[in-house]
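Student: I would love a firmer grasp of how sequence relates to backbone shape in proteins. I am handing you a single protein, as its sequence and its fold in token form. I am told such tokens are a discrete way to write the fold. I hope you can help me see how the letters and the tokens relate. Take your time, and here it is.
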Amino acid sequence: MAKVVVTGASGLLGRALYQTFKEEGFTVIGFAKSRVSAGLLSVDLLDSDELRARLRQLAPQVIVHSAAYRSPDQVEADAAAARRMNVHASQVIAEVAAELGAQLLYISTDYVFDGCSPPYKADDPPNPVNLYGQTKLEGERATLHACPGALVLRVPVLYGPVERLDESAVTVLLRCLLEPPAAGCAVSDLEKRYPAHVRDVADICHRLLEKQREDRAAVRGVYQWSGSETLTKYGMVRAMAAVFGLSAEHVTPTRAPPPAGTRRPLDSRLDTGRLAELGIGTHTPFAEGIEQCLSAWLEKKDAPQ
């Protein structure tokens, strides 16, 4: 089987990608920086020389580039580092992929759209409203310019088995139920989201790359995936409360835009038609997925140390 390099392999999506490709029989090499565990290589993606040397040495047939600065607020706080990761490192990876003749899949985001006219097709004009979306869009363009046969997969907000709640903008909402402040908790009921389980996304990545392997001339460019359920943050909290039998009486929905912080699109629903044409797509119901993910986290959290 082919050799696969997964960047960001210690992260939420990266772990799922690593496991999925391993289960499918691939030789998988994971790149990580801050959380390097057994089976992963420590690679600084911001060091272009190190990154090029590692990829050339390994000569993978497939590269899945999932590493990124993902937190919109983090990106705003350190724009230079975010651009180096989301744009420049992506370009370096694409250049080496083209040199090696490797398949390349770049993970992007629904935040490349402004959220004003959903659903968005893959070829609709992007118009990001924050720097995170802008840098990921620039990363898409750098990737496709340096490696014209590359694949881009835009995904919505993700959740999955977490090592800590703040790994996902979805799972972190459980804190409202577990540690409610005395004054209660106000949660946005404004922005519409379409959460997707990382296991589903990893499966889609594998199947998309397999389709491309069968016909590299036809399967290339931008594809999109979206969860099937429309949920605001408040809706997610209510769903978690129902799943775990927790009270949400102290949680108040708010439809007012946040007074401060990075702007988010109101509804960046993605059209998944290009994947559907390939017969690709799987959606874990949110209640089922969040129970599986957070039950495991709660058991680990409560286990004797």
Q: What stands out?
A: The mean pLDDT is 94. The first strand starts at residue 3 and ends at 7.
